[in-house]
Amino acid sequence: MPAWRAGSGGARRGQHGAPGAAAHPAQDDPAAAPDAVRILTGIFTTVLGVPHVGPDDGFFDLGGDSVLANQVAAQARAHGLNLRPKDVFEHPTARRLAHHIN
To answer: Across the strands, what pairs with 13?
Structure first.
């Protein structure tokens, strides 16, 4: 449940005072997860065996499959990112994955 919905039923006011203002703005800020994006693009590059992966390149468009998605999830967890193979299917780019897990 979002933080602004918790409590006595009234909307909580976030940092800027507006109802529903994100208590965790990192989830909505495109620049909030640069480390996770960098880690994930590196993992994609290694697992897929390609010279470069951009943050918006699709894992499956670059040749990924379910076996490789499992490897991505395992390597991401080794880097401290809470990622499941299913997440790679639902959010197939490094940028989308980074925002999903943050």
So the answer is: 19
Angle between helices 94-101 and 34-48 (to 10 degrees): 130
- In single-letter form, the type of residue at position 17 comes to G
The answer as to whether 41 is a domain residue is yes
Q: What is the CATH number of the domain that holds 57?
A: 1.10.1200.10
Q: What is the residue range of 52's domain?
A: 25-101
pLDDT digits (tens, 9 = 90+) for 67-99: 999 999 999 999 999 999 999 999 999 999 999
C-alpha torsion 7→13→19→23, nearest 10: -90
Predicted TM-score (pTM) of the model is: 0.68
Would you say 47 and 86 are in contact if contact means Cβ atoms under 8 Å apart? no
